[in-house]
Design a protein that fits this description.
It is a single chain. This protein has helices at residues 28-44, 89-96, 133-143, 161-164, 217-225, 236-239; strands at 2-7, 47-52, 68-70, 75-77, 102-104, 116-119, 122-127, 149-154, 165-169, 172-175, 189-192, 204-206, 209-213, 229-233, 250-253. It is α/β, with parallel strands linked by helices. The strands form five sheets. The chain has a three-stranded mixed beta sheet, with helices on one face.
């Protein structure tokens, strides 16, 4: 069974952390509506959606991807690069322990799930301003016993690795080459995003479908040309919080390990 863990939008989302975009006013009502439609899309693609309650004290807590890294065998609770977000992990860990044994990264490690891209038994991790070398090293130590190899990828000019690239299956990575070092990804076929759509590399592949923000039509056309079933959704308010479409869910197979 495919599980998608999500969390309702925090009423404090206008106090979210930002790294590379200017702050804009976020409509809470519209953000909530968009998030509900996002959850509906996940359900339509076959996921059983587990929606957690909003965390009023944590503006970024809707972005459940960042506090955890899930593989088939375990869930690794990260230590996020922004100290104000670290309290998000407690309630998420309680939800995830139903599905996976938990591991925890420790100081001085920082690492966020948005920097983690899994392809088979290889875990690519962005060396970004949110994820440091200690975090990458600790994640490698936690996952090595299960046969995973962790590979660092330099990220530049973007919040996370998955802001710059995402795996869409069949050996293909969608990428904005300006925002990362593609050398560690050379064994894969890298497809460029649409012109003038720098944030379009963050897409969420589920089976042969790909969820794409509707504001990236040229990238959507590229993905359709690759034979993908493109699902366009409006996440414009959440994008004002520097979000993409991967960060608002943790999608995994129940009992995969």
């Amino acid at each position: 069974m495919l599980i998608a863990v999500t969390r309702a939008v925090s009423p404090a989302i206008n106090r979210c952390e930002l790294g590379f975009i200017e702050r804009q006013e976020i409509s809470l009502a519209k953000a909530e509506e968009q998030h509900h439609l996002y959850e509906a899309c996940l359900a339509e693609l076959g996921a059983s959606v587990v929606s957690l309650q909003a965390e009023p004290d944590y503006p970024d807590s809707v972005f459940v991807e960042d506090p955890a890294v899930l593989v088939d065998e375990v869930a690794v609770m990260t230590r996020m690069g922004v100290a104000s977000r670290r309290g998000e992990s407690e309630s998420l860990a309680r939800a995830l322990e139903r599905y996976r044994p938990l591991r925890h990264l420790r100081e001085p490690a920082t690492l966020e799930g948005g920097d983690v891209m899994r392809i088979g038994r290889t875990i690519f991790v962005g060396a970004s301003h949110r994820s440091n070398r200690a975090g990458i090293g600790q994640l490698s130590a936690e996952l090595a016993p299960f046969g995973y190899t962790v590979v660092a990828v330099e990220v530049r000019g973007a919040l996370h690795l998955k802001t710059a690239c995402c795996y869409i299956g069949d050996g293909v990575i969608l990428a904005n080459r300006d925002w990362l070092d593609t050398a560690p990804l050379r064994e894969f076929h890298i497809v460029d995003i649409g012109p003038d759509e720098p944030r379009a590399a963050n897409v969420l592949a589920i089976g042969d479908s790909v969820i794409v923000p509707h504001c990236f039509p040229r990238t959507a056309e590229i993905l359709a040309g690759l034979g993908k079933k493109v699902r366009l959704i409006d996440v414009s308010e959440l994008m004002k919080a520097e979000a993409g479409v991967t960060c608002s869910s943790l999608v995994f197979r129940r009992g995969a390990g």
